[in-house]
Amino acid sequence: MTTVDVLFRYEQHPSEAAMFALGNMSEVYGIRRIQLKEDQKTIRVEYDATRLNKAVVAQLLRRAGMSISEEVSLLPPQPAVEAQPAAAAQ
After folding, report:
1. Predicted model pTM
2. Which residue from 19, 28, 69, 70 has the fewest beta carbons nearer than 10 Å?
3. Domain 3-72 fold
């Protein structure tokens, strides 16, 4: 089993029906965990990559009633590294 996390941003707060559907989504074979952060308008899904992929997970979320707008990177932005001048050869 290869566990993968994917993070999506959504536009509108989920309705009661969408929340119910999200609860049922955890019964899908391969979905391990679903975390919803309403203050950041993000939903994080942990899934088994040997069974599902990002496109299928996004489709399942849309079918549940979530208005997915984009995928968000789980890695923080890396600071730009400036090239240091090479030491003078002697």
Report:
1. 0.80
2. 70
3. Alpha-Beta Plaits (3.30.70)
